Structure prediction request, 357 residues.
Amino acid sequence: MKSDGSLWGSGVNGAGQLGNGTNEFQRSQIQVGSDQWLAVAVGESHSIGIKNDGSLWGWGSNFSGQIGNGSMVSSNVPVLISSAQWRSVSAGSRFSIAVKEDNSLWAWGNNGSGQLGDGDAWRDRPQLLILPDTEPPTGSMVINRGDLLTNNSVVTLTLSCSDNMICASMQFSNDQLSWPDLENYRVEKQWALSNGDGEKTVYVRFFDDAGNQALYSAAIVLDTERPVGLFIINNGDSSTDQVDVKLTLACSDNRLCASMQFSNDQLNWSDLENYHVEKQWALSEGDGEKTVYVRFVDDAGNEFIYSSAITLSLPVIDEDDSSGAGSMGLMVLMLLLSSGLVRVYSSAIRGRDTSIV
Prediction:
């Protein structure tokens, strides 16, 4: 058979198996009619073919009914077997097999060795052997293991498919309009969602080996917008003499500000905690300007870091007051004692409170 669909043959032709209207041996290629053909199979001394319109034809020896036209008469030209739509043919020693477009399997001719697959000795017409598979596969699809939200447009699809025969292939779409090429069925696939935030639906078509298909879908919300916010330390004071401060926080998001965490250096972060508007926090040690960082996280996992600063100036504690006010107080006390004007009931030296009566 040539690429243009024309059919040609040569060689032994005693039973008319070349189909050119003669039973003569042909040394060179001759064309069989003028029709176009889709498929041809050659048996021991007969031939079976499918024409361009899908009809089924046979010619050559027919002693066992292998042509399949309902007679035992051989033919040196193609004779019609069936005008139904056929997909493929095969021929052996005095028997023939063909598959219809619906995937049903048919056989005819000699059955001396059980080659037709049933208990009859022979058949001169195609006999149905296997009914077509019309049952579609069943399955399911889950996005990101069932998450409702994602901040990444590339997701993981977890797939499941079962069939009475075999789940052969699958294909995917974001809109049921554009479908990429079929690919072999497997249980996981990376997939890119359509552009833009919002609810995204992914569609999958499962195919079995008979061509039956089933459509399933799953949805997830894509949110790539980060939360926005701010916070102030000690109601906006510029300085403090205390390490422990109060943070006042504000966060907004297109969905939900879910959590937050804090740091004094952006290296060590506190554990994530539910978002709320006030937080007690300890500044890092030592005087100077102190920057506090907060990371707001929304329910899709988007995050943003904000900071605020305050100057820490701790009070000075004098550990040595042997001079100054303490010494002056001691001198006054000694003068009073030497004058004999007072009696001392209790006193505290080194600048502490002194009780005098």
